[in-house]
Amino acid sequence: MTPSTGRLYDRVLGCLYGGEIGDAMGAPVENMPYQQIIDTFGELTDFTGYGTDDSAMKHILCDAIRRGGGYPTADTWVEEWLAQEELFLKRHLFWIPVMNGFWKIRGQGVAPREAGHGNMASSSSAMCISPVGIINAGNPRQAALETYDLASPIHHNFCRDAACSMAAAVAAALHPDATLTSVLEAAIDYLPPQSARTMRDAIAGTLALARETAAYETFRARYYTEQMLPGIAAPDARETVPVALALFLLGEGEPERTIVYGANFGRDADTIASMAGALAGAYAGVDAIPTRWVDKVRAESPRAHEDVARELVTVVRQRLDDLQAHTAAVRAML
Fold first, then answer.
1. Is residue 97 packed enough to be buried (19+ CB in 10 Å), middle (13-18) or exposed (0-12)?
2. Looking at the domain assignment, is residue 307 inside a domain?
3. Is pTM, for the whole model, over 0.85?
4. How confident is the model at residue 79 (pLDDT cuts 50, 70, 90)?
5. Structurally, how many domains does the chain consist of?
């Protein structure tokens, strides 16, 4: 079976398209409350363009996976930043903590693993991390472990835990026997109960509200009044990751509904819709995404998602072969 056929390829491609479509649909209403979106647009159900910095960082991460021979690290991630530094030198393309990490490394020689110290909270690690879930398909524990290193050039706080959560969820969604429950459990189970308490509690509380309300509009209204962090003008991963997971639940893992929910949630709408769309795409596959949306991204995006999906599936196969060889060698000594 070639990397461009099979169930895994279909779901990897769904993850890539779902993430970019969500990013593009939510971009025009970024930072709007949902009430303003309703007043201005009614309901967003379509998009133009192909995404924002969320998608740009994800593409660079895919390049870093290639650079690392299928085993990306904080160092190879940053090497790719420096190789593509013209993107980082464009004003306003990337958010503050990404640029802080970039300039600490580029201008001050800070080690990549240390560059995230002191950077402001954001969703900049979690929003682009789904490729790490992809290359760890079916292995959420390993996805979380690798993400903890990869996120360190940007964050050293609860935002790094949030990225681990999203990578684990995507990896779990790519398991052949994935269910909504198994995906959402993976989003919490591989976060340490003490060290990652902030994110574990935020995710658990938001999912509890989603299950209690069981309806998107009710959940959205109650989240705004009951769970939004007071005094936080710029949403960070304590909001975006739990909400993305909750919308995946409320959308029952169906990409079209999940993406529309994310774009119309408001606040950091592009990031919420991108993460939720990537997760739903991984869970349901590209065939579950409206063809009109896929065709639009295919025509406008600077990246050929099919090529990237083939490369990532090849990485998965390579890593499985490596693991089997290692397992056989150790087993022979038992």
1. buried
2. yes
3. yes
4. very high
5. 1
